[in-house]
Amino acid sequence: SAILKNCGAKMMVIIPEAKRFAQVLKAQVESMHTLATIEELTSGAAKYNKFTPAANDIAFLQYTSGSTGNPKGVMLTHANLLANVHALGEVVQVKSTDVIVSWLPLYHDMGLIGTWLSSLYYAAMLVVMSPLNFISRPQRWLWAIHRYRGTISAAPNFAYELCLKRLTDDDLQGLDLSSWRVACNGAEPVSPETVENFCRHFSKYGFKRETLMPVYGLAECSVGLALPPLDRGPLIDKINREVFVNTGHAIPSTEVDERVLRFVACGRPLPGHEVRIVDNAGRELPERYEGKLHFRGPSATSGYYHNIEDTRQLFDGDWLDSGDMAYIAGGDIFITGRKKDIIIRAGRNIYPQELEEAVGKIAGIRKGNVVVFAAKDTVNQTEKLVVMAETREENPGKLNALREEINTLAMDLLGTAADEVVLALPGTVLKTSSGKIRRAGNRALFESGRIGRGYKALWWQIVCLTASGIGPELRR
To answer: Which burial class, exposed, middle or buried, applies to 114 when counting CB atoms under 10 A from its CB (0-12, 13-18, 19+)?
Structure first.
């Protein structure tokens, strides 16, 4: 109801099955006066005012995913959306002969703007499947590309990883991915390991390395801000860990052990858009120095709806603060983490994603379901480093061994052990609709004391409930 109250919603379009739930919401939102189904709108049973928009009118409010805090309504105009779709298509060279394949939900920006609106703009064929169909059987995504000779398809990193983990050669016998020319990987941190493994493993099915395009975007820039050049393939930067965590200087390294950090290039700014890297005082930094990523361009929002304070913090002159930390090398942007997520300990920067990925490789830990954050220590009035990881293991001795292995890994990577290692039930770690870890939400969950008491995230309960209705007739 918080989102409905923020936007002052007057009408809610629903499906008949959700009417009772919608009535509960309606009672909590003073501005709302109408609940209507699609049938009621098209038949004229529900009354509404028709509106002819101008380019600078708000097309919709895109509420941020809440991965670091409470969702905020990003104001996007028709001009913003058209500028973004046009710029994305210019880089990818979209044509009406392209076939776009997507399982992404239409309530998420990559699915709504990056696929659906783009397909309309370029008059390209769009093949849509349910997200639940993909999650229950990931091979359906790849077989849809095969069957319809898909040329463009995008997904978050976890989708590529899911294909690696869940699919066997028997699932993919006869698969041909040679038509796939643009495979965007974005909407969450891009894993160097996933990128390399996916390209290597699926090459035998016709997938070309130059097809994979790690990308970067954010709600405040409609959806996309940076893409790599077409047909280049992914670039992975190996840098000296010790120098970087202490100084922020990304010095290239040829080492191959824990002394190296790896970041994936997320490309270059879209045509007509600009980025810069600045320090905390707003001074622009040279190449290979980490700082705050600022951007500007025709896709950028004018602010958050009914939120003056957060809008003020978003802008530095005509530049917008992405909230991400990054460095630039050779014209490419390398995202190092969310500004609010980086943990400072004994003068060193700790990057949660690195430890999360490493812990996810431990046998017995559910990869992609690990979160690292700093939480309040109410005893010492300081912050403590917490690692929360999902596992199906129940044996007390094996659980203790997992905790020891996680702390040994933390010492090797970060030079410090975790203050607390929480091994939780599957489905506990909170994520956004696109699969991003909700660090602030998980921190709040931990601090509330609810971890380890049979609690399962609401999103997981909903997925399980819905997936239970998928019939056995749904094949590849």
So the answer is: buried
Neighbours of 389 (CB within 10 A): 25
Q: How far is CA 64 from the centre of its chain?
A: 11
Indicate if the pLDDT at residue 258 is higher than 60.
yes
pLDDT tens-place string over residues 386-443: 999 999 999 999 999 999 999 999 888 887 888 899 999 998 998 876 677 888 888 8
In a domain, 26, yes or no: yes
Could you tell me if 268 and 379 lie in one domain? no
Distance CA 177, CA 107 (A): 27
Name residue 347's amino acid: G
Same-domain pairing of 311 and 233: yes
What is the pLDDT, as a whole number, of residue 459? 41
Q: Do 226 and 105 reside in the same domain of the chain?
A: yes
Q: Which of 126, 74, 82 is nearest to 102 (CA)?
A: 126
pLDDT digits (tens, 9 = 90+) for 307-364: 999 999 999 999 999 999 999 999 999 999 888 887 877 666 788 888 898 999 999 9
- For residue 465, is pLDDT > 50? no
Structural domains of the chain, count: 3
Is residue 420 domain-shared with residue 319, that is, in the same domain? no
